[in-house]
Design a protein that fits this description.
Elements (H helix, E strand, L loop, with lengths): L3 H7 L6 E5 L2 E6 L2 E7 L4 H9 L16 E5 L8 H19 L1 E4 L2 H30 L6 H31 L4 E7 L8 E3 L3 E3 L6 E3 L2 H11 L5 H11 L4 H12 L10 H22 L11
Antiparallel strand pairs: 1-2, 2-3, 3-4, 5-6, 6-9, 7-8
Length: 298
C-alpha cells in the first residue's frame, strides 16, 4: 500500500497546508482544498449506488484500491439545523427508494432478531430490578438515584411495551419468505450531511445492505432530544411508507431503554439518568399516536 505522500504524488497534489480534524485531514493545494481519510469504502455498494443514479456524496478523486481516499471539499452553506434535518431525511428517503429490493430469507433470520431483542429485554429488566432494589435499600438517595426511583415505572413500561410488540412483530414475520432491503448509510448524523448547491452525505464507512429502519434508528438515537421526530417520521413515510412489521420493529428498538452506565461523578450520572428518562418520555410521545383508536394501521 502506498503511503499518504505517495498517494498525493500519484495524483499530482502538492499540499502547502495540512489541517487535522479527528480521522480526517484537510489539505490545501494550488488546485483547491481536499479531504483525506483512510479508505474504508465498499466499492460494490458505491458501484450499486451509481448504477441507481444516487450520487449525493462528494466526488472521489482516486482509485478504490488506494490506502487513502481523496475527496472534494464541500463548503457548507449556513442553514438552520431544522431545515438541514428536513433536507437530510429527504436524501435518506431517496436513498432507500432508489435501492429497495427484496431478498429471500428463512425462518432463522427472523428468529435470530426475535431472540436477540428478547434477550436484551430480559437483561435490562434484571439490570434495572437489581439497581432499583439497591437504591431503595438506602436511607438517603443521591440526586441520580432519586431521579431513577421516581421514574422506574416508566422504564418498566418501556420494557413491557417492547416485549409485547416484539411478540406481535414475530407473529407478523415468522412465516414470511422475503424481506425488504435497502442501502443503509448506517452512520446518520446531522454532521454527516452537507448542503450547498446540492446535498451530500459523507462518512459512508459503515454503509451496508440492511432494513431501512436502521437508518431511522441511528438518526433517532443521536438526535431525539433536538428535533420533533413526529414530523420527521411523517415526512419520511410520506415518500417511503414503512410496512407494519418494519414500523413495529422500529418502535421496539427506540423504546428499549439504554443501560445506565454507573460512573463515579454524581453530576455526570444525574445528567445520564435525566437523558435516559427524557428519551423514554419522548419515545412515548412519538409512538403513542400510532396506537390510538383513531390511527390507521395500528
Amino acid at each position: 500500500m502506498l503511503s499518504l505522500n505517495e498517494v498525493l504524488k500519484k495524483y499530482a497534489l502538492k499540499p502547502h497546508r495540512y489541517e487535522k480534524n479527528g480521522k480526517v485531514t484537510y489539505i490545501d493545494t494550488k488546485d483547491g482544498r481536499f479531504v483525506i481519510k483512510n479508505n474504508n469504502r465498499n466499492k460494490q455498494i458505491f458501484d450499486y449506488l451509481e448504477s441507481r443514479n444516487f450520487n449525493y456524496f462528494p466526488n472521489i478523486l482516486n482509485d478504490f484500491n488506494d490506502k487513502y481516499e481523496i475527496l472534494e471539499y464541500i463548503e457548507e452553506a449556513s442553514i438552520p439545523k431544522e431545515q438541514k434535518m428536513i433536507d437530510l431525511i429527504d436524501i435518506v428517503t431517496l436513498l432507500h427508494n432508489k435501492t429497495t429490493h427484496y431478498k429471500e430469507v428463512d425462518k432463522a433470520h427472523y428468529k435470530e432478531i426475535y431472540e436477540d431483542i428478547n434477550n436484551n429485554i430480559a437483561y435490562l429488566y434484571s439490570y434495572y430490578t437489581d439497581l432499583i432494589t439497591m437504591i431503595e435499600s438506602k436511607i438517603f438517595m443521591s440526586p441520580s438515584e432519586y431521579l431513577l426511583a421516581r421514574n422506574i415505572s416508566k422504564i418498566y413500561a418501556a420494557l413491557n411495551f417492547s416485549k409485547s410488540e416484539i411478540e406481535k412483530w414475530y407473529e407478523l414475520v415468522k412465516n414470511k419468505k422475503k424481506d425488504r432491503y435497502v442501502v443503509v448509510h448506517n452512520n446518520l448524523d446531522l454532521s454527516h450531511f452537507l448542503r450547498n448547491k446540492s446535498s451530500y452525505l459523507i462518512s459512508w464507512d459503515k454503509t451496508k445492505i440492511d432494513k431501512p429502519i436502521f437508518d431511522l434508528y441511528k438518526l433517532y438515537k443521536r438526535h431525539f432530544s433536538e428535533f420533533n421526530f413526529i414530523d420527521i417520521l411523517k415526512r419520511y413515510e410520506k415518500n417511503y411508507p414503512l410496512t407494519e412489521e418494519e414500523r413495529k420493529l422500529f418502535f421496539v428498538l427506540i423504546a428499549l431503554p439504554d443501560k445506565l452506565e454507573l460512573v463515579d461523578s454524581e453530576y455526570d450520572l444525574t445528567k445520564q439518568t435525566n437523558y435516559l428518562i427524557d428519551s423514554i418520555y419522548r419515545t412515548e410521545t412519538l409512538v403513542s399516536p400510532y396506537y390510538s383508536k383513531n390511527t390507521p394501521n395500528n
